[in-house]
Every structure is written in C-alpha cells, then in structure tokens.
Protein: Hydroxypyruvate reductase
Organism: Cupriavidus pampae
Amino acid sequence: MSRPDPRDPAPDTARDPSGAPAGNLASDAASDPRRDDARALLLESFRAAVAAADPLEIVAAQLPPPHQGGRTLVVGAGKAAASMAVAVERAYGGQSAGRATLEGVVVTRYAHGMPTDHIRVIEAGHPVPDEAGEQAAADILARVEGLNENDRLIVLVSGGGSSLLSLPATGIPMADLKATTRELLRCGAPITDMNIVRKHISRIQGGRLAQASRAPVTTLIVSDVAGDDPSAIASGPTVPDPSTYADALAILRRFGATVPATVQAHLERGARGEIDETPKPGDPLFARVDNRMIATAHGSLEAGAAVFRKHGIQPVLLGDTVTGEAREVAQVYAALVREIRAYNAPFAAPVALISGGECTVTLPAGAAGARGGRCSEFLLSLALELGGTAGVYALAADTDGIDGSEDNAGAIADPTSLARAEAAGAPARRQLDAHDAWGFFDAIDDLVVTGPTRTNVNDYRAILIL
C-alpha cells in the first residue's frame, strides 16, 4: 500500500466501530475543520523534537579545542554515530591543530551512514548484533589500546550503541550474544536491564573502553534512556558501571530468560569472582574521562512543547521516563484524556499532553504476524480506548525514525482512525491482539515515515485535545 504524507490523508470510505457506514471521509474531515491543522501541528512538534537532538547542530559546541600534539582518535557507536562523526570533522576542519591528525571509526545501524573524510563509518546490525558490529568493535578496541598519554580519545555515544558495539567476552561466540539479545527482547526486558546483562558479557562496554585507553577521554553522549543514566546509554563504554554479574543473573531469572550455556556460565563465573568486574564508580581511571551529556529526551520534549505554546495551546510535560507495556500505558493516558474532555480537569482544553521514555511490547512465544513497535502499539491502544472521541488527535513516534520492526518512525491518529481502518479490513481490536499496529496504520495511510534521522533520544508522544 502506498503511504502518502500523513499530513494529507486521502479520502476514503469507512465504517464506525459498530459496523455502520460512516460515509465519505472527505465530508467527515470537512465537518471537523480542526483535523488537518491538528495533524500538521503534531507533525511540526515532532520535527522540532528531533531537531533539538540533531548532532550536526549541537556537537561542535561540546567538543574540546583541537589537540596540540599526538593523535586525535574518534570512535563511537549508535544511531547518531555517523552524524556525530560528520559534526566532529566539520568542527575540526578535518585535522587538529599542530601535528595531531584526526582519524577514527564509528559504527551505526544499517542505512544510517553518512559520507565522511577522516572517520570511517561502518554499518552493522540493530537491535540484534551481527558480525559487522563485532569486527568494528574489535577494531575500535585495538585502536584505543594503541593510544598513549600524548594522544586524545573522543568517543561518540548514542542510542543503539549496545547492539552496534558488540564484542563478546572471551568464550562467548557472537551467535550466543545474538541469541541472548533476542531472548531479552522477546521477554520484554527494559533496555536498562538488557544493558546490565550486555555489559557483563562484553569486552568493551560497562566502562571497559575507557579502561583500555591510556589517553585522556572526552565522551559526547546523546541519551536514549529514561533518566539519562550515562552508564545505561550504549551500555556505558566509558562510564563507571555500578551493576554486577549478580545483577545480570537476577535479571535473567526475573524475566525467565533462557540464554546459551556460554553466557550463563560466564555470568556465574563472574558472580563467583573468577572474572574481573566492570570498573566501578570511584575507580581512579575515570579521572582522565570527561563524559558530557549533549542531548536528552527532556530537551526534545521541551522543543516540542514550544511549538504548541507558539500556537496558543498549553503544553503539559508528563515526563521523559515513561516505561511499561505500551498498550497499558495508553490505557492510563486514555483515562486522563477522558477526564479532561469531560471535566476540564486536571487540565483545560486546548492542551497537549507530551511524554517521552521507552515503553515495551512483550510478544508471546511463537508470535506470528507481529509488525510495528512500541510507538504504533501505544497509539493503536490509545485510539481503541478513546473510541473515536471528538477533538482528540495523537502522534507517537521514535526520534530515530524507526519504530520497531518496520521502516516508519511511528504513526498519527485522529477521531476517524477506527472507522477508516474497519472499512479497510484492519479492525483495531484484531490488529492490537495480533501486535500488528503497523498494519492498522498502514491500512489508513497514517504511518509517519521520516527515514533515519541519525539521532535518538527515545520516543515522542503528543496527545492534542481541542
């Protein structure tokens, strides 16, 4: 099915959720003159949120002055790695002052690369790691180990780096690391818990990259995790790790995750003290490390809020740390929307409810036909709960441009969504039960498709109540 710009949906014929004909949607839309403006406003706010975390705009101001003497090595991983590398090259003019030549390698998700002159960009697998990421991580570690005290290391970290910077611990094959990642995804483990496990089966994460460097380290971080804990972003390659092998084992037990024998044995050996722990807070090695948070989810929510404020609509930030099952979070938000619509409390319309964070979608074992991600599933559940409530419009999208399994950033919903999908043969309840939110929004041409944004500060959700 074609997917035109969701700001200009095509007229169609639809039925309401009860099955009765709903008429022609061109006239339905005409009866709600706010519809097109509301949808355009939601998309404008999302674009502003993404722009607030654009590395090409924010990296240069955070870099240290060009290094005098020695080498400047740039390494990194994440969905924003390529754009961050380009920003470094532009800021340094391709070469540091004096004798220090700019060089390096970063790894990003497939189709997220950008052309560079001095910093090599490698594309690899995400969310499940692959051999390309393993080779890139091995190259990065070897380069860092070759630095001396007169050199400088700049590390570029962004969301997705945990999978992309995958270098399994000795004795763990890449196939077993892949299997562990798939199992944790299947179990619906939150990203922070997933990263605790990954830190303890890695040779490079959990502060070990900084541990390998004799040169001073400056790390620029684009946060994609709730609470902006730097040790959780890309599994904190240059950040002290407060978690332990015992914590990793406890996570596997809590989620009932079954991992390969090599992974289980490695974690158990670590818990017994037979393998060195990741470097902890207070370790003297971090005296030569400067970790700088340069973009956060909250900053992007504020940018989105400014758009609504400019248009005379009160924005309410509900937090950048929202987690939980996507469909269940949507049920809570729907209850709040109904309260506002019925009683103008706790906020009076017009109002925009804005939130970020990272929800989860837990798939049953052997699930077939699941398509989409946490943003589209949240939005479908919200639409179903609201049942076509008039004057309520919503957008949910991932700032990296990819929501889960498909190629869309997210989707947009309005009071006609349920009826249009029913007419298109994609009823909301069936699609939600099948975890096929992508199919629901694709059927009504309401996917938000941006392509890779080359940044990532997690999800952006906005519910506009007029």
Observations:
- Confidence is low (pLDDT under 50) at residues 1-27.
- The CA atoms of residues 69 and 99 lie 5 Å apart.
